[in-house]
Write a structure and sequence with these properties.
Layout (H helix, E strand, L loop, with lengths): L7 H29 L5 H39 L5 H15 L2 H13 L5 H14 L1 H8 L6 H14 L3 H27 L6 H8 L4 H15 L2 H13 L5 H14 L1 H8 L4 H21 L3 H11 L8 H28 L3 H11 L8 H6 L17 H24 L1 H6 L3 H29 L5 H37 L6 H27 L2 H8 L2 H20 L9 H42 L1
Helix pairs in contact: 1-2, 2-3, 2-8, 2-19, 3-5, 4-5, 4-14, 5-14, 5-16, 5-17, 6-11, 6-16, 7-8, 8-11, 10-12, 11-12, 11-16, 12-14, 12-16, 13-14, 14-17, 15-16, 19-21, 19-22, 19-23, 21-22, 22-26, 23-24, 23-25, 23-26, 24-26, 25-26
């Protein structure tokens, strides 16, 4: 199944457009039926068919959304265990895609991991192949003839939603109700097509899909239009439930659905970094190459699934097709994807070279260098498609914050040269870097706000608030460096203030401790590590002692005590202001660490209350 690129309301609007197109296609048949006295109401059939498809799609989205919320944390853990073993990657891709009901979400995750150098394209290929297997779960679900239980599932889910007080328990209700809507939509589509069983022109038309080329083209076009291979498989199974297509025709239509879903991958990769495009190229290559090979073996595949699927020899004609073909088509769809996955898995290195040849490497600028060159910032990991999966979206947010912390780390590292020595040119560079920090902060805040606008379990909602707070604290650090430190550098330069070697050493040691605290705090947030966060908070006593020692040395220098030469009042005031601003930076750094510790405590408390 491909990801819903927009809201479900827009998807239903698209279904209405498709319904009108269907009515236009069927109108010649309706006229022919009317003139021959057939009496078939094609307008009603079309409306019921696409109405059922809309319910089916909405049920898929409701169930998928609930699964993403309920299993989000587990998906992060599963993805985090990926190794260089392609076989494990394949299994992981199949499991994750089966859980989130979307191969495109899995692909988007891979894009983030490959871009972040957390996974090679070779590893990602195994997961892509596994995702193709995971998508077949939809066809297997709808092939079960349990439409008579649809109303019961909807009712049970409804009761669970409106009686559960805990948000996670409500999501289980949405999951059950979504499953019921899938079956209900399937039943509506199947019932809508029932009158066509005796309509010869339609039967003759459906026989044309036995030609693999025609069947693949029709199905690919339909899938590309509605951008949902699962919806196409739903229609195919609904046709099969009325005995309107043969197994060979159903297999050809299933192949077309595999090709049609490539359009979504292509659209998703437009305007994205080269690693993202390579992942999309791999996805499209697997689909097209697999169908191109398998199309020559449709008869053999049909014979195999007949042998392994339930048979009803006591039935004949359309009744037998209606009883046997739905399960056979689902099994053929699964076998095709499993065989192609294991056939292509050993060829991963060849596919990597192919993708890199199609999308060659190009030099990509560093965020700091781009900021110096005045290049506007484009978020690297904040993909809108992931907002529907909050836990995974927040994982990508942490990677974006990592980019922000790298810029801040560079700004902190340049403070001694820029401020202690009054280098105004260096300060102008730091100001440009802070503009980059502001851009990242704005992008992250906007993205996280969108995540927060969705229905979230308590632990995820806490993480959203923690993320907003932590990024705001980091942005404050950038402002201190740009605004306050710039003023101090100007004071140093304009008044020709020279800080003594002893003063420089004292401030440098203090600065190193603050920089270390910031780097540790950022690491704690990005990795969500409470122990690391607590170590930052524990630095408070050491930094307080160091601050007191610095103040004492500066006072001694001002009074001319000890071996140090007497400092003037301007130099003393400048050093005191530098120290105060470094202390403020630690204050915001410590607040980032506190956010991590409190977030972990909140998540543990939420888990304890659920237990």
């Amino acid at each position: 199944m491909t990801i819903f690129q927009s809201s479900w309301q827009k998807r239903l609007l698209l279904m209405a457009i498709v319904a009108m197109a269907g009515a236009a296609i069927f109108s010649p048949m309706a006229a022919q039926a009317s003139s021959s006295g057939g009496g078939i109401d094609f307008f009603t059939i079309t409306m019921k068919l696409f109405g059922g498809l809309a319910i089916f799609l909405y049920g898929m989205e409701r169930m998928g959304d609930a699964l993403k919320i309920v299993a989000g944390e587990k998906m992060k853990q599963i993805l985090g265990t990926l190794t260089t073993n392609r076989f494990m990657g394949l299994i992981t891709g199949a499991i994750v895609t089966a859980i989130i009901q979307s191969s495109s979400v899995t692909t988007v995750l891979l894009v983030g991991f490959v871009t972040a150098d957390l996974m090679s394209l070779s590893q990602a290929i195994g997961v892509i192949l596994g995702a193709d297997i995971g998508t077949t779960i939809t066809a297997q679900i709808v092939a079960f003839k349990v439409t008579k239980y649809a109303s019961m599932l909807i009712a049970v889910g409804f009761v669970q939603i409106f009686t559960a007080k805990d948000e996670k328990k409500k999501q289980y209700g949405y999951l059950v109700m979504g499953l019921g809507m899938i079956f209900f939509g399937m039943g509506e589509m199947s019932n809508a097509m029932k009158p066509l069983r005796s309509y010869e022109p339609f039967i003759d038309m459906m026989k044309s899909v036995d030609n693999p080329v025609i069947g693949i083209l029709i199905s690919a076009a339909f899938t590309g239009l509605i951008q949902s291979s699962s919806a196409t498989m739903g229609v195919i199974v609904a046709l099969a439930m009325q005995g309107l297509i043969s197994l060979e025709g159903g297999v050809a239509l299933a192949f077309g659905a595999n090709i049609g879903t490539c359009m979504t991958a292509g659209l998703a990769a437009m305007g994205k970094p080269r690693p993202a495009v390579r992942v999309a190229v791999a996805h499209v290559t697997f689909k097209i190459a697999g169908v191109a090979i398998a199309v020559f073996f449709i008869p053999q595949l049909a014979d195999l699934v007949r042998d392994i699927s339930p048979q009803y020899p006591q039935l004949a004609g359309q009744d037998r097709l209606a009883a046997e073909v739905p399960r056979q088509v689902a099994n053929a769809h699964t076998i095709f994807n499993v065989v192609m996955a294991f056939a292509f898995l050993p060829l991963g290195s060849l596919f990597v070279r192919w993708c890199e040849w199609v999308v060659p490497h190009a030099a990509e600028g560093d965020s700091v260098e781009d900021a110096m060159a005045g290049i506007s910032y484009k978020p690297k990991y904040l993909d809108e498609a992931l907002i529907a999966t909050p836990s995974l979206a927040l994982s990508m947010v942490r990677r974006e914050v990592n980019v922000m912390s790298d810029v801040l780390e560079k700004m902190l590292a340049d403070i001694p040269d820029a401020v202690f020595k009054g280098d105004l040119e260096k300060m102008r560079e730091l100001a440009k870097m802070d503009d980059r920090v502001d851009e990242i902060h704005q992008a992250v805040t906007s993205y996280v706000s969108k995540i927060g606008s969705t229905t979230l379990p308590e632990s995820v909602a806490d993480e959203v608030m923690a993320t907003i707070t932590a990024t705001s604290e980091m942005e404050n650090i950038g402002d201190i460096i740009e605004n306050n430190m710039t003023h101090l550098a100007e004071v140093c330069a304009n008044n020709s203030v020279v800080i003594s070697d002893e003063g420089i050493k004292t401030l440098t040691d203090y600065h190193k401790q603050i920089s270390h605290a910031f780097k540790t705090s950022a690491t704690a947030f990005i990795t969500d590590n409470e122990e690391t966060a607590l170590s930052v908070m524990a630095m408070k006593d050491d930094i307080t002692r160091m601050d007191t020692a610095c103040q004492s040395k500066q006072m001694d220098a001002l009074q001319g005590e000890g071996d140090a030469p007497m400092a003037d009042l301007t130099a003393y005031t400048l050093q005191m202001d530098i120290r105060e601003n470094l202390k403020r930076i630690y204050y915001h750094t410590k607040r980032v660490a506190k956010v991590v510790a409190r977030s972990r405590e909140a998540m543990m408390a939420a888990a304890k209350s659920r237990a």
